[in-house]
Amino acid sequence: MRFVVVTGMSGAGKLTAQKMLEDMGYYCVDNLPVQLIVKFAELLYDSERDKVVLGIDVRADQSFDEILQALDEMKEKGYNYEMLFLDASDRTLLKRYKESRRKHPLAMDGRVEEGIAREREILKETKKNADYVIDTSRLLTRELREELANIFIKNENYKSLMVNISSFGFKHGILLDADLVFDVRFLPNPYYVEELKHKTGNDPEVHDYVMQYKESEDFLEKIKDLLDFLIPNYIKEGKNQLVVGVGCTGGKHRSVTLANEIYKALKDDDKAYGVTINHRDIGR
Fold this sequence. Notes:
CATH architecture of the largest domain: 3-Layer(aba) Sandwich
Structural class: alpha/beta
Number of helices: 10
Number of domains: 2
Number of strands: 9
Order of helices and strands: EHEHEHEHHHEHEEHHEHE
Low-confidence stretches: none
Shape: elongated
Oligomer: single chain
Largest sheet: 5 strands, parallel
CATH topology of the largest domain: Rossmann fold
């Protein structure tokens, strides 16, 4: 039987992941009282179910240490499980809570920031020991579903690092969550070519205009060399998400073109990391 424990930061998508796994044929149960966890495992291992998900999280009304002790007891009795940890940046979690107007389970005084910090400290070791960590800060719903299917249905190799390539325009503000930022404003600007002005880097004419210059090709090669060096080392250090920002003035022409080229260079299903792309300011 495949027994999956799903946990993670509140607001990171734990319930969404459970619903997706349920759609994939998993029998899902969420937040059992700690006293029932081991008994639940015993009953399921004696049943005919072959795919089970148990959701657990930090709650104000029960000790997370007691939950971990129950999971340890499960393993001691031979009831093995895999742990999936859903995470997201503090900035993303705060934004999600403000949009939903829900109260954080550990925000006793109503301050979501303190609840997030308290929860992250409680879950620090759990995340470190998890079999799979997925950062949902920049994942679309379909991308999360694909990642879960790859791990829990197709049994493909787990990609521990998700690289997000994001184009943006400096005049709209720099990417606040970027780990690396590349400024491509030194390249010739298609905005000043009348027939290209209202197109974007997704259009072949703009792409060809930007990439016709030797500086563009040279810059792209240097970025690829840098990422080829950095990514394996980030994976080695346990980093789960890498955000690569590519910026030009308005975020529609040069940055989109170079971001697309970087994405194409990194995208490979056989690699040990996943790659996504978005163009923050392309519609402005």
